[in-house]
Design brief:
The complex is a heterodimer of chains A (154) and B (275). Chain A is mostly helical and 154 residues long. Helices cover 53% and strands 0% of the residues of chain A. In chain A, helix 1 packs antiparallel against helix 2 and helix 2 runs antiparallel to helix 3. Chain B is an all-alpha fold and 275 residues long. Chain B has 12 helices and no strands.
């Protein structure tokens, strides 16, 4: 690890760090623009914050200054607050509509905009993945009463 | 990979490929691969996903070839591995149909990011990312997901809003960012740059304060980071503490108000987009 940490304040390291940060930020942007599940949208927002953190630490390394590190600590705590509040709102939205779909709330749009209607809904891929099974040995256990309650796939 | 290109550049195979063209090709490939990977309606779902992963790997290869060399082969390999883990699992996070799998891929992405932070010399932040994000925030996400997810995949997880436009937007943003990052090399280091035109005209007299460049990578790094945090940034720390308190109380208040009001069924909202 000591050899790793002796890279110095090279421009190449700064640029590589910034490129990784930029890639993470753009991926988060694509996710938040296109996905419709509320929780996946928040995950994408967290992805953008990660990209920002990587960029800040790269600049901090380049300038030899702790300012970037301090800012990343603040980003972490603001992200924690944001996640707490946002998840509360998501839960409220779910109890009202029963869905985690962001377009369940499209009646809040401007009245001049058209409703977005899903024309083609792809069929559910019902083929379950084949998990490896152990060969049964001994007496078969009693069937679980709650087995029907479990969901088939997450 | 970079070494590979340097070898070929000597023989003149890749001389016609300027970095600009490589970057443009990489960004186009990224947009195409994201479009193919995002869940959308169509018959050839599995094939398009495979093609998408293939084009994505080509994109990563192009980004690696255009990247700067770090000098040491071992350092380069470590940086490459951790950043590849971060980027590939980030792609999987936003393209995974199941939100639970997306959250777990995000945990892997956090592991990669904390590796990048460690390589960049932020030991405390690398550990704090794992502890705070993967340990607290992500578990909270999973908790809510398990609490709120209806059984099976809903239709909204299998389609996306405007997959092509958003993939193109991400590609364009990444292209612009990479261009401006690549131009950093052509200039002098920021601390030694001559004053800008406005400063030269005397609009604002900018006194350059010569800050001594501290070596971040000493053994008492965390102690000095704490000193900086509670010295120069003490007021900001207090403000963040108040912010955390407000978030805590706010979350409780919203939940208790919502529980009273949740009996009101908003039937107009219930129709949603299925009509």
């Amino acid at each position: 690890m000591t050899t790793l940490l002796l890279l110095g304040t090279s421009l190449a390291l700064l640029q590589n760090g910034l490129v990784v940060g930029a890639i993470l930020f753009s991926l988060g942007l694509v996710g938040i623009l296109s996905r419709r599940n509320l929780i996946v949208m928040f995950l994408s927002a967290e992805l953008m914050l990660q990209g920002i953190s990587v960029s800040l630490v790269a600049w901090s390394r380049y300038h030899g200054d702790f300012g970037g590190h301090v800012l990343v600590i603040f980003v972490l705590s603001v992200a924690a607050c944001e996640a707490a509040i946002a998840l509360v709102f998501v839960l409220q939205a779910f109890t009202r509509t029963g869905r985690l779909d962001s377009s369940a709330w499209q009646s809040l749009r401007e009245t001049t905009l058209d409703r977005s209607i899903d024309h083609e809904i792809p069929s559910l891929d019902t083929s379950m993945p084949s998990f490896p099974r152990l060969t049964p040995a001994g007496r078969s256990p009693d069937t679980d009463e709650q087995a029907g309650m479990q969901r088939e796939h997450v | 990979m970079t070494l590979f290109v340097h070898l070929f550049a000597g023989t003149g195979t890749f001389e016609f490929l300027s970095p600009g063209i490589l970057l443009a090709v990489a960004v186009t490939c990224l947009a195409a691969s994201l479009y193919l990977l995002l869940p959308k309606s169509g018959r050839h779902g599995k094939t398009s996903r495979r093609v998408g992963w293939l084009i994505g790997l080509i994109t990563l290869g192009l980004f690696i070839t255009t990247g700067q060399r770090l000098g040491n082969l071992g350092d380069e390999a470590v940086f490459l591995i951790v950043s590849l883990v971060a980027v590939v699992s980030a792609v999987a996070t936003i393209t995974c149909r199941s939100p639970v799998y997306a959250a777990i891929w995000f945990a892997l992405c956090l592991a990669g990011v904390s590796g990048v932070l460690l390589v960049l010399g932020a030991q405390f932040l690398g550990v704090a990312t794992i502890v705070v994000y993967a340990g607290a925030i992500l578990v909270m996400f999973l908790f809510v997901l398990m609490l709120a997810q209806p059984s099976g995949l809903t239709t909204s997880d299998r389609i996306t809003n405007e997959p092509m436009l958003s993939a193109v937007a991400g590609g364009v943003l990444l292209g612009l960012l990479s261009l401006s990052i690549g131009r950093l090399s052509a200039e002098e280091p920021l601390c030694c740059r001559p004053p800008s035109k406005a400063a030269a005209l005397g609009a604002i007299t900018v006194e350059k304060v010569p800050t001594e460049s501290v070596d971040l990578l000493t053994s008492d790094q965390v102690a000095r980071l704490g000193g900086e945090l509670f010295g120069r940034h003490l007021v900001a720390v207090e403000a963040v503490g108040i912010l955390l308190l407000v978030a805590l109380i706010g979350a409780i208040a919203i939940v208790s108000n919502g529980l009273e009001g949740s009996q009101v069924e908003t039937s107009s909202l219930h129709e949603g987009s299925r009509s």
